[in-house]
Amino acid sequence: MASFYASVVLRRALAFSNANNMTEDIPVFSVETYCFDKQIAFIRDTARFKTAVCSRRSGKTISCAADLIDTCVSTQNINCVYISKTRGSSKRIIWKELLHINKFYSLNAKIDNTELCLTFPNGSMLYLTGAKDSTEIDKFRGMALKKVYIDECQSFPAYLKDLVDDVLVPALIDHQGSLILIGTPSATCAGIFYAASNSADSDYSHHNWTFRDNPFLLAKAQAANPEIKNADDILNFELRRRRTTIDDPAIGREWLGLWLRDMTLAVYKFERDINTYDHLPSLPWNYVIGYDLGFDDSDAGVVIAYHKHSPAIYLVDEFKISKQDISSLAAKMIEWGRKYDPQRTVIDTGGLGKKITEELKKRFGLALEPADKVRKKEFIELMNSDMKLGKIKVPKNAMVISEWELLQWDAEEMAKNKWVEDSSFENHISDAFLYNFRECYHFIQEEVVIKAEQFSERWYKEKEQEMIEDVENNFRMRQEEY
Predict the structure, then answer these.
(1) How would CATH label the architecture of 272-444?
(2) Spatial CB neighbours of 144, under 8 Å, sequence gap ≥ 6
(3) CATH 3.40.190.10 is held by the domain 2-256
(4) Across-strand partners of 52?
(5) pLDDT above 70 covers what percent of the chain?
């Protein structure tokens, strides 16, 4: 078996070479000869919806490439799509693999490097694309698709759910096609990929494998270093390099494909059991409004309620809209101003935000103040402290939850002792909430003392306790005198 995998490794290497004068017959592409057992089981699983949770260097990209090629070659006039976070990452991850399969097996697919598309002789087409934000979802509407792979699912923000539910699943109806979510576990253990790959009663068929299951990786590593005897030698080198152990959550996620939550990477320490509410308490609330502006990104706004008799602040309204013009944004601001009569309205004036804010103030007479953005990390920690104490409450279906649960610190920057949010994830509503949090004065809460009605049962108990305390105090004072 080892020699078989070594021979396949050699054939793959030849595919990248310039050996145009090959004397042996052109091989026939086959999933069974191109992939190893767990990849084959995954690809041949006939379930329409599948997940694959894999480690680094597990060969998941080769699985995607082999399955997509096999589907296009075996079925006429269909469309298949490979999606990663951006078009550039799609090209970097899988395009080269697709091209060398096409070349080595003489599949004669027409290559369009501009559109990142392969058109096969039978009329089937394979597209590579990205979905860097929710505005790119529309490009997939109206297409009839046979198979869709979404790779590196753990890196997608919350709009992945909209992409799946609103766009891709309807596009699969014509051919009763399949959708595959594939990736590596994330530190936050949240989002549609986590939910889909961990639900026992979902429509998804689940697959898992790691670098240890990848004989091609071991064969190549041994060819480069004969001292490597098995897959654990590869892992042990990585443990020594990182100066860590196999119990490290990052090792568990990246090398063992395990969902291990690591809140040290989470920007916001949100907990659903502690930080959500069903009904807003009845108080004469004060309101503050915060806005975070974007265009290619999204405009976001939040309304927070606070009161001196409440230890907690409450999110009562929110929105997130992309590519919104100034008039539409102003209409929303005017609507909220009339509805909530806020004590303060703060807005992000960074970048183009300053010009937009001045235009909003001049044209629409809006009372807007620049948001305080200094010492962001410190205020995030203050907010996290309040979250831990249950002093921040949001509705159970709030949009901001999807950001809080996914948003992570950039691990590479953290290693340099720099606190930078991972740009893979959205933070628009999170930032608007943070601006507002800084304007709330729930931390100066006054204690409300409600006295019992005179001569009630509670009144007698309170009087009895007061008398006991008076006697005890007098007794202590007399002891001190003697």
Answers:
(1) 2-Layer Sandwich (3.30)
(2) 78, 79, 171, 174, 175
(3) no
(4) 182, 207
(5) 85
